[in-house]
Structures are given as structure tokens and as C-alpha cells.
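ping. complex inputs:
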Amino acid sequence: GAGVSQSPSNKVTEKGKDVELRCDPISGHTALYWYRQSLGQGLEFLIYFQGNSAPDKSGLPSDRFSAERTGGSVSTLTIQRTQQEDSAVYLCASSFMWRNQPQHFGDGTRLSIL
Amino acid sequence: KQEVTQIPAALSVPEGENLVLNCSFTDSAIYNLQWFRQDPGKGLTSLLLIQSSQREQTSGRLNASLDKSSGRSTLYIAASQPGDSATYLCAKTQGGSEKLVFGKGTKLTVNP
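pong. complex structure:
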């Protein structure tokens, strides 16, 4: 497909479980971003990958959150020992590596922690 | 602290009306500003991106302006249509980082 693909589209899990969210960026985009959208906080930056550089992890809310990007393409966001406050929509975006390139978003994963 | 503010939070207009959505930001060290629309249950669709050296960008019925000195951007929608109903978000990047800082959006309803 031509757009950013995220899976699953919905995830319901019990508190304390680990979850993995997947993002497949647009082909040729070397920059990849994760954001979180929740009712009270709006859209918040989580982490940013750019080529082979060290990722910018400054938005990760706790050490339960981690992300990796394999082969410069697909990325996985992992949340360990989920808490109810982790319930949100997790959005992935990608862009070309040059400055001033628009970020293109996937439809997100809606995560619900019971 | 809210770095990007969008007012109003919601707006309802009749079809055919021209309208302006507002976005203000607290730090003038902006690198670029991007406008998005979000439909319910969907991700964000990029509408326009204005670089800090630019004053406006246009796409079809949309025109976005940027005034760094006053810390404001506006999105002008001409001849609004019911299909324009969505939440509109503005987001900025600042020098040295590509991460977007978002406002909380304006929910627009265009009534037939």
C-alpha cells in the first residue's frame, strides 16, 4: 500500500500484560515517529527514528515503553506491564529524511487496558 | 504548559461559509508549521506545511498563513462543504528537532 500501515487496529488487553504495536512506514521514508493520542492530553510525541542515528526517546513516558526499528523500515512499540493510563490511540508517522518534509500518519492502534 | 493553542475547540457553520481556524504558539523559534485534519477513528491527513521562511501556502480551497512575530497561524477554508467536517490540528517543529508539538484541535462541523 501507499500509506503508513499500523497493526493491530484495535487491541484490548488486561492490566499487567505486555503489548507490541507495529508500524510499516511509507516506502523510501527514512524518518519514523510514534505519537500517542489520549482524551486528556491530546497528541504527544513519544519517539523518533532517523536513518542510522540514535533515536530521540525524549517523549517516552516511562521505562515500560520501548521501541525499535529493524532494517530501517518496520518499527515496533512495546509497552511492558501495561497500566490503565496507557489506554490511548498510538499513531505512527513517517517522512523523508530532509528538513521541512510533511509527516504522514497511519490510522493508529486503539489500545484499551482493562 | 500548552505550547500550541487552538481556539475555538469547536466550530459549527452553515455550508458555503468561508471560515478561519486559529493556531497560536508560544515560542517564535519555529521551524515549520503543519496543518492536519482528522476524521473520527482515523489518523491524521496532512493538509499544508509552511516553512518558517514562508508566509503562506495554498492548496485548493485551503490557505494557511504563518506570522512568526505574533506567534500565529491561520487556516482559511473557502466555500465550506459538509465533507470538510473534521477535527483540524496544527503542529509545529522547532529548530534542531523534527518532532511535532500539537495543539488540541478545532472540531469543525459544516451543516448542509
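Residues 19 and 112 of chain A are 11 Å apart (CA to CA).
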